TrEMBL record:
Family to which the UniProt record says this protein belongs: Belongs to the RNA methyltransferase TrmD family.
Stated name of the protein: tRNA (guanine-N(1)-)-methyltransferase
Domain tRNA methyltransferase TRMD/TRM10-type: 8-83, 127-275
Entry's localization field: Cytoplasm
SUPFAM superfamilies: alpha/beta knot
Function: Specifically methylates guanosine-37 in various tRNAs.
Catalytic function, reaction form: guanosine(37) in tRNA + S-adenosyl-L-methionine = N(1)-methylguanosine(37) in tRNA + S-adenosyl-L-homocysteine + H(+)
Pfam family, one: tRNA_m1G_MT
EC number(s) recorded for this UniProt protein: 2.1.1.228
InterPro entries: Alpha/beta_knot_MTases, tRNA_m1G_MeTrfase_C_sf, tRNA_m1G_MeTrfase_TrmD, tRNA_m1G_MTases_N, tRNA_MeTrfase_TRMD/TRM10
Compositional bias segments (type: Basic and acidic residues): 96-122
Gene: trmD
Organism per entry: Corynebacterium gottingense
Amino acid sequence: MSSHIPQLRLDVITIFPEYLEPLRHALLGKAIEQGILQVGVHNLRDWGQGNHKSVDAPPLGGGPGMVMKPDVWGPALDAVAAGTSNTDELTTAAAHRNDKVRHDQRNDVAPRPYDARDVRDGEDPDAPLLLVPTPAGAPFTQADAQAWSRERHIVVACGRYEGIDQRVFEDAAQRYRVREVSIGDYVLIGGEVATLVIAEAVTRLIPGVLGNTQSHEDDSFSDGLLEAPSYTKPRSWRGIDAPEVLFSGDHGKVERWRRQASLARTQAIRPDLVAQARARDELTDEDTFYLDSRAVITGLDVLLDPRSWSKVRKRLRRELAKAGYRIDDATLTERSGPACFEPSMLEQVYEQEHGLPALDPLCQLEITGRTTLSNAEATKAVVAALPRGTQWVGTTRSLDSHE
């Protein structure tokens, strides 16, 4: 283990010390080994009363279950705050390779701790943070994890039965910054599982725990949204292809796809997060357009000179963007066979209007993109952006999902 001072001291008080064994494993174990994390596990029964080391009693006023006693918890929290408690210091479960140069070291990335801290008015910022997992607590969020990753000393009180006498936390506020916290709208047997969840969420954000800082900066909830889906090799697996854009080599396109995939996933699974991001004005104009628009394809048969296509395409992109139709791709292909929209009709109409056969060939125009317009309005916008008098027939249709 490294000899430098740990960046975080985590003390856990519980009647089941063995429940905290997972803290010794994987990245948390490695953080302990590197001296980034120090974990002490305290058995509450060391302060228990009587021959059976009792820690609970029936609730005042009657009711089911038992409540954990203040005259047990109070001394325990006093001792942990003062550093006088006998404790089992956890060591890493297995030795890790620490000679391999990690991403941030290789690229000389400076540590980027999060800025926010959880200190309220009237609180001593140097006091330990006391976390109390309870279904009655405030929801635990990624923002909490980020703020708590700046702490130097966190103590967790693991309740059992019907909980801990509330006076314990009122008293503890003299020595701690007390936070009652819930990891979800459900009830567990005790606080140990919640402690493991919180410990992982917080510790992984401490600089040096993960080898690549960006891997947690891009996490779900880090920017208020869910993370985009992830893919790796092979390119196609069991008939399912990875998104083509990920092979483009265009970092700008890849980042744009990831942002849009994040927005689409969040809108589908957690629309409340999108609503919150809108209310906080955290979405860009591009984000808002993507969420409010839908994917469409416009297919037209047109009489158009392919030699003018480059100029027409530029005009299409510019004019449609003004109208609220953003193009992803636009192609013009000269037809060499039967057309879906009766090309002879276009030619006949042209000849009737101009008194001579059409000089321009029949082409298929296909535009894919996103729009806030109705399908009919999108088609009109495309036609309006074509050279004046262009003969056309076709329509716009919506695609089934974000792509």
